[in-house]
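Q: I have 178 residues here and want to know how they pack in 3D. Can you give me a structure?
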Amino acid sequence: MQSDHFQMLGLERRFAIDLAELERRYLERSREVHPDRQGGRPAGERAAAAGEAMQLNLAYRTLKRELPRAEHLLQLAGVRIGDNEPVEQDLLMEILELREELANARASGDAAALARMESAARTRERAELDRLGALFAEFEDAPQGGGGPVLQRIKDQVILLRYLARYREAFEDDAEAA
């Protein structure tokens, strides 16, 4: 059974969340369930508290970032994204071209091109995350049960963002290797 990270942290199930409120609720709940507070309790209760603390940490990490939050909301709505989802051919070609351009810039040692490409990747990812937010707002504002068609568009947007995130992460991989 899928746990509801929003419920665990006492937040409304929405894409647009107040990150300061998320942080406040996480800290509040983590103080309650922290294993160090369970010292005098039976082993079973301590183990349960440790498990709850792990779930709480997972909930916080998931809701803190937009893409994992979106994926969680889709899961809660019964929408799954598999590893081999069909993808528009244009998107695949675009990503292949971007990766080829990245490989060429790396091979030639063109630091300016790499910086320009990384900036463009971050800008594109931010724009697509903003689109995702607008799609969720449309879904959340739909009458009860009327947001179904928007869910497919949200799923498609999440898939696009997964590809863009992997491309952007290629720049971070370079920075870590340096």
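Q: Anything worth noting?
A: The helical segments are 5-8, 19-33, 43-64, 66-76, 89-108, 111-141, 148-177. The chain has two domains: 5-64, 89-177.
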